[in-house]
Amino acid sequence: MQLATRRPLSLLMLATALACAPTPAGPASAPAPAPALTGPPTMVAPTPGDERFTGRVRERLPAGPYTYLHVATDAGDRWVVTMGAAPAVDLVEVRNMGTQKNFHAHRLRREFDELVFGIVAAAPTGKH
Q1: Half-sphere exposure of 63 (CA within 13 A, CB side)
Q2: pLDDT tens digits, residue range 10-31?
Q3: CA distances from 86 to 27, 100, 102, 123 (A)
Q4: Which of 21, 58, 92, 106 is deepest in the core (most CB within 10 A)?
Q5: The domain 52-122: what is its CATH number?
Q6: Nearest to 90 by CA among 116, 67, 68, 122
Q7: Is the pTM of this model over 0.85?
């Protein structure tokens, strides 16, 4: 029984070692040009005091594993994206994890001037 348990682990370790091993040197050739890196979008950290905000949901846009929310706050309207389905309530509290300017949502085929990436929860009563 112990041998049967070791075999898959040994095979996995061998496959990993082979995949990570350097390739043998072949005839000298010019290195391939490096691909252009576009990288992930740059996030802007929330400013102090903006880590959390509360507002009323004006619009919900489900997009696969994300939900986009148009939230009306005391400071103005903001667009927020969160993982999963946001709570089905009118008043939400958003924990701002970062903001991006000029964000293109591929699933929605839509541009947002500013998008807050956040954690959305039902707002505690008496907040707004």
Answers
A1: 18
A2: 333 433 333 444 444 445 555 5
A3: 57, 20, 23, 12
A4: 92
A5: 2.40.50
A6: 122
A7: no
Question: Who's near 26: CB < 8 A, 6+ residues apart?
Answer: none
What gap in Å lies between CA 38 and CA 125, rounded to an integer?
43
Q: Are 85 and 62 in contact (CB under 8 A)?
A: yes
Q: Confidence band (pLDDT; 50, 70, 90) for 55?
A: very high
The two structure tokens encoding residue 35? 């691909």
Contacting residues for 122 by C-beta, under 8 A, at least 6 apart: 87, 89, 91, 92, 93
